[in-house]
């Protein structure tokens, strides 16, 4: 019961899978959560010290059962990484209420539900929450009325959690990734969007899953013991750039 643990949602692939592997490398046991049972079991089957749990984070009953199972089997929950997310880009007039709700259900409801259910266990060990937002939650753009708004909500939700849970020693922080070539991003990034991102990002490239995961793992660690309520953009400098006029480039 002394070995630290972490829960990672959306752990079957992409940033969540990379985060799982980095937690394992530093000696934690990891509960891998995903609604894609086939992909989850395939990845978990290749790893040691993991507990795969099939769960849709937007469903309150499933979340409650998942947290109970992890707490019972692990005996403690030291970190919760709310990483599961979906993307859906479209103009405001074409974003049906159903599409809006689908994005909000996973990206925002899921973070609220998993965090709320984990709090009693995080209190016991003064644990940490890391929520995954996006640069789309920091800066508005076209086509992201649902996705960008859900991610801005995640940033505010993180601050609410930090403000309220600090007295229990629970830290809550947020990571806002820039573009990473995962299945989620490649479904909505056309070749034109990829080229435009390269142009707008000072480091001139997409990030890797591991470059996002290392920030997440740091924020969960004791090295970040006095950091709470923060959003760290791991984005190659995208967020820090101001007016991106080509005429102002050197
Ligand atoms: N890839 C990027 O460019 C990028 C940029 C900014 C933010 N993000 C955010 O990073 C997070 C991870 O994204 P990724 O790029 O690794 O995506 P991904 O699609 O590769 O992985 C997401 C995982 O989440 C799971 N998932 C989705 N909805 C779920 C639900 N309701 N319940 C349980 N599991 C669910 C999927 O099955 C999948 O395994 C997301 O929150 C995403 O919004 C990604």
Automatic annotation (TrEMBL):
Report the coiled-coil segments. Answer: none
- CDD domains xref list: SDR_c
Q: Which organism is it from?
A: Alloyangia pacifica
Q: Indicate the family of this protein.
A: Belongs to the short-chain dehydrogenases/reductases (SDR) family.
The record's Pfam families line, in alphabetical order, gives: adh_short_C2 (PF13561)
User: Ketoreductase domain: from which residue to which, for each copy?
Assistant: 4-183
Q: Which SUPFAM superfamilies match?
A: NAD(P)-binding Rossmann-fold domains
GO MF terms listed in the record are: oxidoreductase activity, acting on the CH-OH group of donors, NAD or NADP as acceptor
Q: Per its UniProt entry, which superkingdom is the organism in?
A: Bacteria
- Family matches, as InterPro entries: KR_dom, NAD(P)-bd_dom_sf, Sc_DH/Rdtase_CS, SDR_fam
What is the protein's name according to its record? NAD(P)-dependent dehydrogenase, short-chain alcohol dehydrogenase family
- Please give a single GO biological process term from the UniProt record: fatty acid elongation
